[in-house]
Amino acid sequence: MTIIFAAATVPVNPAGAYPVMTLKQLWAGLELKRRMPQLFLAVIDTCEVLEDDGESVLREVKFKDGGGVGMPPVIGPKVQERITHIKPLSEESGSGLETFTSIGSASRVLNIVSTGIDGGLNLTFSFEWDHEDIEAGSHAAVEKQKEYQATAPKGVAGTLNAIREMVKEGRL
Predict the structure, then answer these.
(1) Separation between Cα atoms, residue 103 and residue 101, nearest integer Å
(2) 142: pLDDT strictly greater than 70
(3) Number of structural domains found in the chain
(4) Per-residue b or e along 96-114, where b marks 16 or more CB atoms closer than 10 Å to that residue's CB
(5) pLDDT of 18 higher than 70
(6) pLDDT score of 72
(7) CA distances from 123 to 96, 110, 152, 158 (A)
């Protein structure tokens, strides 16, 4: 088994961003994303929440057009994920964490809200994809890591853009 990593950090409120999002708004968007990911990711068709205890959600996501059956990170037309949130302690705390664990796979994602040295909010997505079919350290592993790393910043930016639009519309 090979775990292939990728990660990206994006400022939540870069120069010129409008509206400037608060930690509360950002977190509300991430809360919505764990229950309704199809609003954020075009590849997702539907999401059914199977369990929800407030901190942890078990969901089953159905992907459009099969989702690349057998090809991580999407391991089939449907996938079950457990998402756990460690919400910010206060508006001033500047950090929070959500973990996504794929059921039946060693794949997982961390979404980390943090405060940078300049005091601004950052959002980091860290991905760990389980590839049983790729040998560790191989050329295929390196190429797959490059591919995932190239898309990671787009995933963070897309999530922030969707949340910002919801804030503009008054939905968050």
Answers:
(1) 6
(2) yes
(3) 1
(4) bbbbbbbeebebbbebbbe
(5) yes
(6) 44
(7) 10, 10, 12, 11
Residues spanned by the domain of 116: 2-168
Residue 120 above 90 pLDDT? yes
CATH number at residue 106: 3.30.530.20
The closest alpha carbon to 170, from 19, 16, 47, 7, belongs to 19
For residues 132 and 11, the model is more confident at 11
For 127, the token pair is: 């991905």
Angle of helix 139-168 relative to helix 23-35, nearest 10 degrees, comes to 120
The pTM assigned to this predicted structure is 0.88
| pLDDT at residue 75 tops 60 | no
CA 143 to chain centre: 22
Give whole-number Cα distances, 80 to 36, 85, 132, 137, in Å: 14, 16, 19, 29
Do 109 and 92 contact (CB within 8 A), yes or no? Answer: no
Q: Report the amino acid identity of residue 80.
A: Q
Look at the chain and count its residues: 172
